[in-house]
Amino acid sequence: MAQQNYLRLGDTAPDFEADSTQGRISFHKWKEGKWAILFSHPGDYTPVCTTELGMTAKLQPEFAKRNTLVIGLSVDNVDDHHGWVKDIETTQNCTVNYPIVADPDRTVAETYGMIHPNSPHTMAGKLTVRTVWIIDPNNKVRLNLTYPAATGRNFNEVMRVLDALQLTDNYKVATPVNWEQGQDCVVLPTISTEDAKSLFPKGVTEVTPYLRLTPQPNLP
Ligand code: BEZ
């Protein structure tokens, strides 16, 4: 089996310089101090991608509230991106205010492992699959989701994971199965129940010594 280098959680997201619908972008400089959602789509002028990019445009203000930039990528060129953005805005009733990277020579896509040669509907590995990367302000990879080309992603789920990651970073809680905003969180296993009681003044419920719940700490 061919040896492959995978980008793993906790690794530094590779920097790159590329053209985009908002001009030349130096990735690390562009996102400096912020979280970023970098997502690839198989190609311009394709139906599923059109709906995904429209939804991302509508969610962009919510991502911004979370100190998060969004950036798309496909292996098409900038002129195609510009033409297609007009279609996205018309058909999805939105304004696309985030950049879409043009990666016609697939340099970024290959570096990030977004080309999957054996995946169906990617023209023998010439197109990208649907990968989402959540990258934190220190440029570390915090999430990698990969969907097949013919399956649209759920960007509400991407937002949910972003919220969960930021809660863990800021409040020392984890999030249980199917967690949604406003629901109880899990005290990190590294914190003793005694410490948890002073750390979480809203209260700690000890279901078992290792499963401790507390109300979501960043809500009033
Ligand atoms: C699309 O983006 O619409 C798409 C791409 C590849 C296969 C099927 C759908």
From TrEMBL:
InterPro entries: AhpC/TSA (IPR000866), Peroxiredoxin_AhpC-typ (IPR024706), Peroxiredoxin_C (IPR019479), PRX_1cys (IPR045020), Thioredoxin-like_sf (IPR036249), Thioredoxin_domain (IPR013766). CDD domains: PRX_1cys. Pfam families: 1-cysPrx_C (PF10417), AhpC-TSA (PF00578). The keyword DNA-binding does not apply. SUPFAM superfamilies: Thioredoxin-like (SSF52833). The active site is at C49. One of its GO terms (biological process) is cell redox homeostasis. Residues 7-167 form the Thioredoxin domain. One of its GO terms (molecular function) is peroxiredoxin activity. Keywords: Antioxidant, Oxidoreductase, Peroxidase, Redox-active center. One of its GO terms (cellular component) is cytosol. Belongs to the peroxiredoxin family. Prx6 subfamily. Thiol-specific peroxidase that catalyzes the reduction of hydrogen peroxide and organic hydroperoxides to water and alcohols, respectively. This is Peroxidase.
